[in-house]
């Protein structure tokens, strides 16, 4: 089993979050992480000894921030913070999501700014490794620290509430006992620290990015198969086209499309192909490339937050101070997920348009083809997919609407702005799943048309997807409905596409390393400047790639 070591000096990656949350990789704390956590804890101990007022340590919370808490009730006060905030509503979050949230909270603690003691920080990794999954209601955060969400996890840590162990719901005390763990005792400020982080939008955001990455790859496959079905021109994907526009993301998609279509009949100059295709095909590199650019920015933002501290107050191991902050406001994450939904909605729009192109090609072919003479394995019932695609596209456009502007002022005006980041993440995941259905449907419809043509050679990257559809069709009855084929083939098509967060540089290869740092301090993603350089250097780089 894979083990991931959390370190202060080495960033945790988005793909590692997936391996821990989805594949149950084990978690350990590196020596420098332990040292950093201990240094942060010492700041709180020193503040209490000096009688320094620290928010949440010896004062109230929110609008009671200036109310002093007596020293003789400080320990109970931390328990009260957890219990009072554990008021989530709705169905339980799935196990992978809870694991991602727990990991994100622990990753933040590794920075040393939370003030957590080492035993409490280690307890997150112990629960993760033992398979104890707190029962966390879905609704509990407005995107200004995930208070209700993290309080449900903290409740399990102190033996309150309920949790799951091996899929069985138990009292938290029973789950911990059966896993060989004892409930923890919260000390100074720890009741606040265990509920004060944006672990939902960071942890589940990392899972969402894996899902979006898979969808972006699937979109390229769907477009490439449609091009083969519609006898499309490869000219818009020529490397020199991207050179003229100086767009790296466009160049990446164009290169990926050409890689998928390597060996395809479309590469034969003697084939009769379209001189100029509809924009839903001709601008795939531009539209898909723009979505990838938005994705890269968002991935950098989420990975940055994953390796940062959102604590308020923060306890600085470097200066020995406890500072009030607004770091718990994940505005960049919230706006990033707003943006990626719009980008994905555009992928849905051109997917729906491409299905229309296939439909016209299909019916014109069917009208002139004797069904009895079709080759073996031909798929006869692709169905009226355009109608379903239009319906899903309408739903996706609704999901793409902004959600981050809707949180009211709370806590007597003290908490008068919030980001709704968790809602933005949830809507992105829902939209992504719908878009997967559309793209898989496009692949199935394109494959149905291509199955009528025994004389065409498909690309090295598109052929495996075509083969999956044909195999799924052979497994069905001769008179089955097209929807049954779609239901059987869709999960296979999605699963055969990687959920690794890194998108391709041309094909699905290793990511580029940022030239200024070698990637040592930046995690997996190099920062993307707000202003994209149009300097000649980038043009020369793309031109050299085109020439190569």
Structure description:
- It is elongated and about 90 Å long.
- The protein folds into two domains: 3-197, Fumarase C, Chain B, domain 1; 205-313 and 326-547, Fumarase C, Chain A, domain 2 (Up-down Bundle), CATH 1.20.200.
- It is mainly alpha-helical and 548 residues long.
- The protein has helices at 14-23, 31-50, 74-85, 95-109, 118-130, 147-157, 172-178, 190-193, 199-229, 239-245, 248-260, 279-282, 284-306, 331-367, 385-399, 421-450, 463-474, 482-495, 536-547, and strands at residues 3-6, 26-29, 89-92, 132-134, 137-139, 162-165, 168-171, 314-315, 322-323.
- Strands 4-6-7 form a three-stranded antiparallel β-sheet.
- It is 53% helix and 5% strand.
- InterPro entries: Aromatic_Lyase, Fumarase/histidase_N, L-Aspartase-like.
- Keywords: Lyase.
- This is Histidine ammonia-lyase.
Q: Please report which band the strand proportion falls in: under 5%, 5-15%, 15-25%, 25-35%, 35-45% or over 45%.
A: 5-15%
Average pLDDT, all residues: 85
SSE-based structural type: mainly alpha
The CATH class name of the largest domain reads Mainly Alpha
- The assigned CATH architecture of the largest domain is Up-down Bundle
Number of helices: 19
CATH superfamily of the largest domain: Fumarase/aspartase (Central domain)
The neighbouring-strand order within the major sheet is 4-6-7
**What's the helix-strand series?**
EHEHHEHHEEHEEHHHHHHHEEHHHHHH
Terminus-to-terminus distance? 41 Å
Quantity of strands, as a count: 9
Largest beta sheet, briefly?
3 strands, antiparallel
Give the % helix. Answer: 40-55%
CATH fold description of the largest domain: Fumarase C, Chain A, domain 2
Rg computed from alpha carbons, rounded to a whole number of angstroms: 26 Å
